[in-house]
Specification:
Layout (H helix, E strand, L loop, with lengths): L1 H25 L1 H17 L9 H22 L5
The structure holds zinc ion.
The site of zinc ion has 6 residues, from helix 2 and helix 3.
Length: 80
Amino acid sequence: MAELAGYLDDQVVAEIRRELEIHLAECQTCRVLYDSSRKTLQIATDSRSFELPGRVSQQLVKKIMARVRAGEKRKRPKRS
Ligand SMILES: [Zn+2]
């Protein structure tokens, strides 16, 4: 069951990551937020490699995407 949970989690993260990448490509505000958060995390974890540990990276992506969604919802003007 733990393996299944891990698999499902990976699937969800993959989707979120894709969504995030698409959004970052067209939104500089979130790109800056993501970059600065990643740099802060790299310093905090004293990571010498460019890639963050998988778990940390997944948590970051989830956190950023949640913030992105909340933020965009609030500021997005209604189209008519
Ligand atoms: Zn955005």
